[in-house]
Write a structure and sequence with these properties.
- Chain A: Pfam families: Pkinase (PF00069).
- Chain A: Residues 26-37 have a biased composition (Basic and acidic residues).
- The complex is a heterodimer of chains A (475) and B (203).
- With 475 residues, chain A is α+β, with helices and mostly antiparallel strands.
- In chain A, 22% of the residues lie in helices and 24% in strands.
- Chain A is globular, with a radius of gyration of 24 Å.
- Chain B is of the alpha/beta class and 203 residues long.
- Helices cover 32% and strands 20% of the residues of chain B.
- Chain B has helices at residues 19-35, 81-93, 119-128, 148-158, 173-185, and strands at residues 2-6, 45-52, 55-64, 106-111, 136-142, 164-167.
- In chain B, strand 1 (2-6), helix 1 and strand 2 form a beta-alpha-beta unit.
- In chain B, helix 1 runs parallel beside helix 5 and helix 2 (81-93) runs parallel beside helix 3 (119-128).
- The radius of gyration of chain B is 17 Å and the shape is globular.
- The two termini of chain B are 24 Å apart.
- The interface between A and B is large, with 57 and 45 residues.
Chain lengths: 475, 203
Amino acid sequence: MITAHGRARRNPPLSAPQGPTTVADSDGHPLELEDRPIGSGGQGSVYRVRQSRFAVKLIHQREETEGLGDTLAERLDRLRWLPMEGLPIARPIRSLAPPHLGYTMDLLDDMASMEPLCEAPEGDLVEWYLSGGGLERRLRLLARLADVLAVLHGRGMVYSDLSPRNVLVSASQQHHQVWLIDPDNIAVESSALGRAIGTPRYMAPELYDGRSGNSQFSDVFSLAVLVHQALRADHPLIGDLADLSVENERRALCGELPWTGHSGDDRNRSECGIPEDLVLIARIRRLLRDAFEAGLNEPLKRPTARAWANALYAAADLTLTCGRSGCRGSYYMLRNRCPYCDAARPDFALAMVRTHLPANRGPQGREPGRVDSQEGIVLLKDQPVNATQRHTQLITASAEAPAARLRWDGDDTVHIENLGHVPLRRVPPSGGAGRRLMPRSNATERISSEWRLHFGEDDQVHRMLSFHKYKAERA
Amino acid sequence: MIVLADVSGSMLPNQLEDKIGVLNRCIASMFTAFAQMDSVQGQVHVGAIAFGRAEARLHLPVGPAAEAVWPAMEAGGGTPMGAAFDLAREILDDPEAVSGRAFEPALILVSDGVPTDDWEPALNELLGHRLGGKAMRISVGIGTDRTPDAEEVLAQFSGPEYGVLRADQASELPELFRWITDTVTSTFRPGLAAPNLEDFDRA
């Protein structure tokens, strides 16, 4: 059984400031707010408007003290011109009437703050971790968040103040949507560089001492902290040395102490958090090291949001849920037993992702070749899973667009449904063109016949899936 | 593997991004990964051509990846891609650079703009070359502001197998180069043996 505990808090968490119960928008419509904010950033708090699909962002401080050089009205106006189509980011609708400063924005139903998934309680962590959806749900939410940030960065914008308090996630554990609720600091990168906005403990070191303003690199630092907090339930910079004094903590956050997982410097190890071998896998370890070791004070060396999204999605695909009723644990399929209840790992099938190289077009020479990846999709008995564009294409425009639904019957049969727009190929071990599976049609194949599913033509570089079965260890 | 890198003025750092800086880091880390490769199958030899201003020049002579030290490229001027194709062909013909026993070469073209010289005859000659025609050719387009002309050059270079790999922003480049690295460094497997689960957690 695992024992893991959260770091004792130096200061009790601040109770949320009591906001007004009613505000009015610029048209004079009264809006009745819920008592507790659903999120907050460095500059304001977000309250849901009772019985509506709206929320209100209330800005705490007066504009002049923010040093942003523009007024709220200007900022809201500028936001309308930023290319945010299709991104799950709340957009301002109307300003609030004085004396309140802020605006109304749209809000999805059934969303809750991400903060409870990232801020570990003091004391025992296991129950807290599992009740928040465990490893798999955390990986999927983090992947989605990184994906959104990658698209935002791809369009030349920075988010500026990423922290769990201004990310909302699906309240239901079956869903993995995210919704960002701090739109007013989004800016094009060039204009963001002139200011340093952030939430303490999530800010990049260069923002603390004013070496640099907000950038995509400071965004991805915040993202890396958030990933570490959510997966390990511990802050990557605040180890046992940083925790000794307020001054040490300040030095750690400014990048003057090694991070807790440093490969050669043990000074700031942490006794707290979920053990890393339970929740990390090589690819994520590598990104964390790049972010907090080489990238701690060299922003250019930090992994990009796209690298995080790819690694987190891939890790989520390798998890499975414990089969014992009552156990909510999920863990990587590498383990033989559930680390939470010690039940044997259930049987599973693995759809292994490989790259196909056409004959004469790769390092392998004259035969078609295959390149293994460290990616695969775990299939549990009768639980359909979608393969998406990130499994089927080398470079994806839309990582989560479904390509094929896969369902394993628990024995030797895999059902496939083509959810994409182009035919797929089911190819026998002897090779050749195989049989086509047209869009929206179904087929079944036997794992033991060693067929594979191709997402492209033989003369093109493309991805493919092969299927393998793994039996549980019998005690 | 020979990289043909665009170092024209449009790759210069601006307030939005530093294309040339990211490209320098991507290539350097790709070569480092090649250097760390299992040497059972042999070594990867790497070289690079930079094209910018009015000429294409040999930026890194072809040699073992383990010995390569990446000198940062600087950007400026036009996009003499045709000259880069000519130079690539000369390198492929040079027995000092590409020995007769070498595997087929890989050529990676990275560019964000339209060539400013007469590229078509040069590309035809490169593709007609005994090694150039068989080489694994990958083209990487950077930026969203590429014109159809620029896209056409990249598509013609890469041929149908790979198509043009797109990095809309320089920030997409590292993942793209990671994929290219994986493809080139992976052990070729003729069969489809069941994977060892531990391999998924291999550093």
